[in-house]
Amino acid sequence: MNRGYELHTLKVGLNFTRNFSYILVDNASRQAAVVDPAWDLDVILDKIRALGVELTTILLTHSHDDHVNRVDALLQIYPAAQVYMSKQEIVTYGFSCANLFPFGDGEMIWLGETPITCLVTAGHTAGGACFLLEDDLLSGDTVFIEGCGICDTVGGSPVQMYESLQKIRRLVAPHVRVFPGHSYGKEPGAPLRVLLSSNIYFQFEKVEHFVQFRMRKNQRGSLNFK
How does pLDDT run along the chain (226 residues), one tens digit per residue? Predict the structure, then answer.
């Protein structure tokens, strides 16, 4: 695939918590961004050094601890790196760190010569976001390959989650690969067209049916999607 960037997947975690962080590299400048740095700082640093890139950017899909708990540690090593989170997320939860830049829905960030479109996709949190590239969507806890994020945390909303999934359906091309913050049986990187046919949360045509199902009682687990 001839494109101007590389995307590297990192499995990080602590005990039973497992996340995916990502490193995005602009091929022209060799500038790099880390998406949702958490848990295993050494894993992240080792990959940055192995790639021989300059970390200039940190992209945060939302403010939950398991997605941001290595931001400050990275900034101690790369103090000039700029951190991006949606304005709504920052305002709602009071997230703060050095070099923090808020963005709004549809705004573009440039990593060297690579454009990154910020999509605010509330639902899991009040200002959760996805980052859209030419061929890839970094979706945090908005949408997983198997389902979507829970909506009963502080600031969460199943109505907004429904609207966010409709936004993804509307704005993201079917070939774009989806890279979420967690895996619940399927590896990241499936094209959106697969999710549109197999992910149950894309099947609801009416918001009230979506809300009833996402918030149904007696689920075997909050991440049991069916």
Answer: 568 999 999 999 876 668 999 999 999 999 999 999 999 999 999 999 999 999 999 999 999 999 999 999 999 999 999 999 999 999 999 999 999 999 999 999 999 999 999 999 999 999 999 999 999 999 999 999 999 999 999 999 999 999 999 999 999 999 999 999 999 889 999 999 999 999 999 999 999 999 999 999 877 654 444 4
Q: Measure CA of the first residue to CA of the last residue in the chain; give whole Å.
A: 34
Q: For residue 161, which of 118, 120, 219, 220 has the smallest C-alpha distance? A: 120
By the 8 A CB rule, do 92 and 45 touch? no
Q: Domain 5-214 falls in which CATH fold?
A: Metallo-beta-lactamase; Chain A (3.60.15)
d(CA 72, CA 50): 21
C-alpha dist (Å) from residue 194 to 137, 144, 183, 184, 212: 14, 12, 15, 16, 24
